[in-house]
Amino acid sequence: MASFCSCNSNGSSCESDTTTFVDDYGESVFVPTHPQRIVSVSPAVTQIIFDLGAQDLLVGRTEYCTHPAEALQIENIGGISNLNIEKVLSLNPDLVISGSMVPKSAADQIRNMDVPFVSVIEKEHFSNLYDNIMRIGVLTNRQEQAQHLCDSIQKQIANLTPIDTANRPTVYYVIGYGKGGNFTAGGNTFIDEIISMAGGSNIAHDIEGWSYSLEALMSADPDWIIVRKEDYQGFSTTAPYTKLTAVKNGNLVVLEESSMLDLQVPQNIEAIKLLNKKFCNHK
Question: Do 184 and 212 form a contact (C-beta atoms < 8 A)?
Fold first, then answer.
């Protein structure tokens, strides 16, 4: 821990209440304990900040930060991998919070302008969500709210309807399909854990990463298929996927928002409850 007075070169006011924060890449960064102007460079970070009730601190977000809808009212800084550094600095932030997609060169350039830049990244296990909530709670000075949020998620998980191992339906999540290849969530992802927590058995559990063969999908012929809203029509009407039992029986869980499952965010609990309800009714 450290406390000192530092005037940023971008013209922001002098901070006399500063502490050391070690981010997920091991960078030790002096951050304000009471930030007033935060730029989020991660859709997951933006969602968590809103869920902590700290959205008034946000002055910038990426074009991919679209949930909740209120986030669209915050200044759009553009993309992530091609971060517009000038736009970020023009917002006069006293803290920038990133995920894993920002190039190191961009992060270093922002740090060189004496703007605190920290990374809170999505990780392999679902339980890491609680860590990220608590860490962002520290960064936004919302520790109590962060603890309440974690407790709420854990309570909702405890109230899920249990499904006996022998009766667990097999499940496949469509991340990509068609000529470009078939992609899903392997066993080393928090999405795999979400499917299991909901009472399903991910047919891709034994692979690592995201690529999955068409032959393996057709052979496994899962009981349920999870698909994003924007992919539903195309997937369900394209051969050979139309031959899958889940497609023929209408056993498709359509996600209205892909962020429910794609991002490591509190909204994951809504996906878990939705899947649990579907799987419990499986015949």
Answer: yes
By the 8 A CB rule, do 65 and 49 touch?
Answer: no
> What pLDDT band is residue 10 in, cutting at 50, 70 and 90?
very low
Total H helices, total E strands in the chain: 11, 12
Cα 49 to Cα 55: distance, rounded to the nearest angstrom: 6
> β-pairing, 38-41 with 95-98?
parallel
pTM: 0.90
- What DSSP element (H or E) covers 182? strand 182-183
* pLDDT surpassing 80 at residue 13: no
Q: What does each C-alpha distance from 43 to 13, 200, 261 come to in angstroms? A: 27, 27, 13
Q: What band does 165 get if pLDDT is binned at 50, 70 and 90?
A: confident
- Give the count of beta carbons closer than 10 Å to the beta carbon of residue 43: 24
Q: What residues pair up with 40 in beta bridges, in sequence order?
A: 97
Q: Which tokens belong to 187?
A: 């066993």
> Is 6's pLDDT higher than 80?
no
Coil, strand or helix at 142: coil
The DSSP output letter for 67 is S
